[in-house]
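4.2 Preliminary Data

To establish feasibility before requesting continued support, the project team ran the inverse folding procedure on a target of 377 residues. The structure was first converted into the token representation described in Section 3, and no sequence information of any kind was made available to the design step. The complete token record follows.
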């Protein structure tokens, strides 16, 4: 074979061992978890409870957000403190459809959502016109947050706003949206948001098989986005993103326009968070403006930092680790769990500067196990 052809030969998306791990994860999500939840009787030590299904499904949605954060922060050097906005927009788009699915089963037996009847609204506002269509609302989940991210990113990146200034502006955008959604006249349920969902595509949400299907969709979406992210960071596009992160001025001198690359990955990451929000809402059963709070967006960055930036697998691990620890601490120590969680963050910051994934990237023994997941040259 021509040596030059060998040099440009495409790198495999995943090594063979990683494909086996992906297959194991796929079988766990689609076969093992449903069997443990639906077929193993309650009380058996192997039984996966409905609470466990909901918790893991919720964390998988969080992991998608952490993965999206890694693409823009870990690989492109753009720290966003406003990704909670895109997560919430996807959740609200799904919530609107779920509210219409309630029909006359609400407290007021009206075709209008209960909060609109309570506020004495006579008809649906214009932006609810096609909210009873599942297909239309899924388009809204994809288009609305991506369009907002594209417009915001275009003006921000064209003005070369970066660093801490960009982070502050994204947080200000999210805070402004939160204040807007808190207002009753906007038609999004005010501070209570949307809740009391009954059905999705005509199927009861309380049904065990429905919850398991949502769990499986969340897991498959997470795996799909992970493979997409791996493909991106290993491509020429991904190498340019990393060059922008390390030396944006030099990238400009070589003839590349960083605006196009930053805008593309920024919009994609917003879309990923929106999809995560749409999967999150029917599993949790509520969406309100609190999902747009500053703390919610900062948490997404924390998951990526704790897991390990620029590793892809690290932020996923970080999302599971932090939220799993939060769930355990709140049950075992309901009054002082915040202190434990704070101590955990401090410990990771001091002793694991490269995150949890950094442990497995060290040479020797088990610490070299996940060396292949590191994407930095």
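Position-by-position output of the design step:
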């Amino acid at each position: 074979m021509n040596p030059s052809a060998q040099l440009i030969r495409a790198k495999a998306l995943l090594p063979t061992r990683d494909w086996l791990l992906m297959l194991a994860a796929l079988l766990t999500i689609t076969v093992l978890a449903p069997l443990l939840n639906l077929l193993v009787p309650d009380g058996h030590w192997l039984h996966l409870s409905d609470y466990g299904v909901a918790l893991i499904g919720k964390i998988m949605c969080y992991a998608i957000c952490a993965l999206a954060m890694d693409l823009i922060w870990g690989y492109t050097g753009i720290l966003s403190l406003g990704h909670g906005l895109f997560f919430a927009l996807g959740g609200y788009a799904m919530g609107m459809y779920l509210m219409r699915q309630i029909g006359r089963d609400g407290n007021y037996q009206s075709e209008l959502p209960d909060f609109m009847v309570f506020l004495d609204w006579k008809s649906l506002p214009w932006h609810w016109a096609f909210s009873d269509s599942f297909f239309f609302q899924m388009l809204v989940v994809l288009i609305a947050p991506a369009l907002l991210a594209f417009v915001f990113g275009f003006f921000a990146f064209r003005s070369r706003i970066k660093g801490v200034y960009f982070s502050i502006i994204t947080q200000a955008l999210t805070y402004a949206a939160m204040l807007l959604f808190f207002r009753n006249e906007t038609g999004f349920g005010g501070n209570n948001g949307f809740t009391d969902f009954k059905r999705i595509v005509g199927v009861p949400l309380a049904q065990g098989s429905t919850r398991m299907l949502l769990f499986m969709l969340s897991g498959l979406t997470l795996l799909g986005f992970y493979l997409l992210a791996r493909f991106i960071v290993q491509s020429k596009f991904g190498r340019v993103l990393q060059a922008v992160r390390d030396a944006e001025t030099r990238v400009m001198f070589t003839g590349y326009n960083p605006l196009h690359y930053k805008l593309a990955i920024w919009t994609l990451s917003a879309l990923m968070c929106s999809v995560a929000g749409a999967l999150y809402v029917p599993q949790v059963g509520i969406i309100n403006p609190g999902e747009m709070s500053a703390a919610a967006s900062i948490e997404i960055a924390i998951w990526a930092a704790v897991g390990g930036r620029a590793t892809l697998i690290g932020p996923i691990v970080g999302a599971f680790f932090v939220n799993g620890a939060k769930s355990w601490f709140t049950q075992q120590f309901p009054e002082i769990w915040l202190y434990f969680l704070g101590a955990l963050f401090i410990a990771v910051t001091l002793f694991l500067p490269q995150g949890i994934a950094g442990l497995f990237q060290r040479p020797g023994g088990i610490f070299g196990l996940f060396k292949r997941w590191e994407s930095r040259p």
